[in-house]
Structures are given as structure tokens and as C-alpha cells.
Amino acid sequence: MRRLKAPPASVDVLIIGGGNAALCAAIAARRGGANVVVVEGAPKFYRGGNTRHTRNMRCAHDAATDHLTGPYTEDEFWEDLYRVTEGNTDEQLARFMISRSKDMLGWIAEQGVRFQPSIGGTLSLGRTNSFFLGGGRAMLNTLYRTAENLGVEVFYDTPVTKLEIDGTAFKSATVSVNGKPHVIKANAVVAAAGGFEANIEWLKEGWGETAENFLIRGTPYNRGDVLRMMLDNGAEPIGDPTQCHAVAIDARAPKFDGGIVTRLDCVVFGIVVNKNAERFYDEGEDFWPKRYAVWGRLVAAQPDQIAHIIFDAKSINMFMPSLFPPIQADTIEELAGKLDLPVEALCTTMNEFNEAVQPGVFCHTELDDCRTEGLDPPKSHWARRIDQPPYYAFPVRPGITFTYLGTRVDRDARVQMVSGGPAENIYAAGEIMAGNVLGKGYAAGIGMTIGSVFGRIAGERAAKHARE
User: Fold this and answer.
1) At 122, is the pLDDT very low, low, confident or very high (cuts 50, 70, 90)?
2) pLDDT in tens, 125-158
3) What contacts 367, CB < 8 A, 6 or more positions away?
4) 367-400: b or e for each residue (b if 16 or more CB lie within 10 Å)?
5) With 90 as the cut, is the pLDDT of residue 66 above it?
6) Which residues partner with 301 through β-bridges?
7) CA-CA distances (angstroms) from residue 47 to 56, 309, 363?
8) From CA 271, how far away is CA 282, in angstroms rounded?
9) Does the keyword Chloroplast apply (predicted)?
10) What is the overall mean pLDDT for the chain?
11) CA distance 191 to 147
12) Residues whose CB is less than 8 angstroms from the CB of residue 172 and which lie 6 or more positions away in sequence, other chains included
């Protein structure tokens, strides 16, 4: 077994974590003149946390670009965020993040990251979100290359096992290297080690046994160890432990690390039923990027945390499929058998839905007039009769991306302490502080915005503190 090199015993700025937020912090701190070390708990192949599975980020901008089709104002961004969080956000901090997001596309591009035209279909993100050329892993690899070229030292398989915090001041972190403890002292620290979504026992503290049926879309290394240490050392918590970015993903996905290829974007084209073959929510409530993140929680509330998306031949080519093929049948009765659903109940649900569909002009890029009438729950848009065989279905379970319970921060990304006021030299960025902005709900690309904006700020402020 190859022995790992130990990090230096002291450094200006210590970055804990290895994803987008951590790398933005490391690059900003290094460009700010600090000596920077990154400790990543995962092996090199799995470095980067959930950034590996991302595709895009959402930033305010004033005009169209070569990869964005039009402007996306700060006010519109705020309205979208307010809507999906239902007001559960720190408005001042959120508006600050949005204003700072306007510079991020240029800053990220300066670090070597390239963008591509937006994907079409149900995503409807061509104007609002910038897609990374090559996806999240390519973006991440570029940031690592830039950081290392600047002189940032990165250490993999190096989890933090202890934080020494004296009152409001960070003193050192103990990491595990080759199974042995190693202490790193630093003038400033940036905690960017993700949430606790891969820690099923912690999830069960809020969700109960329901969490046993959750699938974790991202890295198995985000267990919340650093977050727990921060809270135990007096960091002020923010957020609800049951709030998270949760989507409906293919139930055949692995328990951990299934990634973006297990997500399903076809809800708007059909109906969703639980194990009793009953519909339970409006599948056409709004554009998919604004509502896809409600479906994880919706499925979590269903019996056995399982549901099925059902549609017909008219829609099979209108969305990006899962890694797994859809279940197919020539009749609804046959499909019910393959899904282990009560046949009579599914036929009744399907007949009631088809009879409730009103005439309209179908257009998946607009809030069209295809709706149901007299049905509870309704389908407000994109409602078409499901009557053209073959019929298809995808089984889905709750897919947890990241959790919202975290550490409270200010505009400088400084961690706020329970004892009152900000920490002297402790900063946080990314999922570990996302609950400041995301108290509830989600809209596509916001997680990367939070990580990039506050990662850059944390790195700049940490470097300034270290120099002083």
C-alpha cells in the first residue's frame, strides 16, 4: 500500500474539503498571497464531493452571451429563489450572493473553466444557467489544475478527525495520514467539507426510519464529520435537519454516488403514482427546473418511499433518460403487473386522469393550456391523455443531494459563533453553509452558485486575515 505524504505542520490558510467551494477558496486565497493547503478526505479518484455530478451554475447576468440566450436580472434571480424557498432564506445574505454571482462566470472562466450551450428539453435553462463543457468533473479537474499550478498543495485520503478551536479562534486541525494523527496549524481555516447526506444515522435523527429508503445521489464521503465538529465547538447552527436538496431518482440506482444519470426529468410528461396506484401531486405545477427538487420529499412521504412515473409513446423521446431503461408494456394492465401495482386501481387512476384532460396546445417550453379539470390533485400544464402504447414507467425513490443544516455565516463567509459574533479566523463555504440561503426547496444550479460565491469570498478573507 502506497504511503501518503503528510501535509506541512503549519500553513497560512487550511482548506478542508475538495469540491467546488473548496477549490474556489483555495484559488482565491492563493491569488491573495497566502500559502494554501487543501485536505480532502476522499481518494483522488473520488475527489470533489458532489461537484463531480453537477452540470451547471445559476448566475445573474445583464445580457446574452455565447452560452446564455438572454439576461437574467438580480431581481428575477431573487424572485426565483424566494419562490422555491417559500421565503425560508436570509434575504440580505441571499441578495448579496446574487449580486456577487454576476462576477462569477467571468471569474470561473479566468480559472480555465469552459462553458457550452445549454441543454434543451424540459430543462428550460438556456437563459438562466451556464453549463460546464464536459460537466462537473471537467470543471473540477480544471480548478484543481489551476490551484496546483498556483502552488496550492492538495492532500487526498486525509480526513479531519479533530478541530482545535479556542473560543472564537481556530488553532489547528488533526488529520489522519496513513492511519496516524497529524496536526496542522493555520492562521485561518475554510470549512468546505459538504453536508451530512451520506450519514444515514444522522439523517434518521430527523427523518426516522424513512431515511433507510433514501438513495444518496452524491459522494459517500459527505458524512458531516467536519460540520459536527464545528457545531460541537460553538459554531452557530442554521437550518432544519430534515430540509435538503431531494429529487426523485431511479429506484434502481446504487445507494451512493449514482450521480446525475439516475435523475429523471420526465414527470411533466406523465403521471406519478404511489404503491397504491394513487396520484399525489400536480405533475405540471411549474417548469421542471423550479419544481424538480420537491419530488424527493413528495416521494419520501409516500408508503415505502416508492413511486412510479408513467407515460406513453408520445413522450419517450422528449427527455434525457435514466441510466436504466424504462419498464415497458403494451397495456396498462400489463404495466401494473410489471410494477407490482394493484391492476384495478391503476386502471381507475389512468381512466380518471384521461377523462379529466382538457383540449389544449401542448408546448413543453411554455406554461401551456393543457390541463385537467375536476381532478384532485390537478395537472396544471402539459396534461395529455396517456393512451398511445407502448406504455412506460420509471420507479423512483428519494434521492438526497445535500443537506441544509449547517453553520451560520456573514457576508465575509465568517462562521458565526453561539457565544455571539463572528469567529476570528474560521470561514465556511458550500454545502456546509448552504442553509443560510436555502432554508427550503431548490432551483437548478444554485448549489454551485453558493459554493463559488462564498468559496471565493472565504478564500479572499482568509488570505487577508492570514497576511495580517
Assistant:
1) low
2) 889 999 999 999 999 999 999 999 999 999 999 9
3) 286, 287, 381
4) ebebbbeebeebbbbbbbebeeeebbbbbbbbbb
5) no
6) none
7) 18, 33, 40
8) 9
9) no
10) 95
11) 17
12) 163, 164, 183, 184, 185, 186
Report the C-alpha gap between 240 and 356 in whole angstroms.
38
Contact 446, 90 (CB under 8 A): no
- Position 185, amino acid: K
CA-based R_g, the chain, Å? 23
Tens-place pLDDT, residues 221-269: 999 999 999 999 999 999 999 999 999 999 999 999 998 889 898 999 9
Phi-psi region of 48 (alpha: psi -120 to 50; beta: other; left: phi over 0): left
- 328, containing H or E segment: strand 327-329
Containing 394, the helix (H) or strand (E) segment is strand 391-403
Q: Alpha-carbon distance 318 to 330, whole Å? A: 20
Cis peptide before 377 (omega within 30 of 0): yes
Grade residue 119 by pLDDT with cuts at 50, 70 and 90: low
Predicted confidence (pLDDT) at residue 56 exceeds the cutoff of 90: yes
Rounded to 10°, the helix 446-467/20-31 angle is 30
| Ranges assigned E (strand) in 6-141 | 10-16, 36-39, 56-58, 115-116, 129-132
Kindly report the CATH number that applies to the domain delimited by 246-399.
3.90.700.10
Q: Which fold has domain 10-241+404-467?
A: FAD/NAD(P)-binding domain (3.50.50)
What is d(CA 185, CA 349) in angstroms, rounded to the nearest whole number? 63
Tell me where in the chain the CATH 3.50.50.60 domain(s) lie: 10-241+404-467
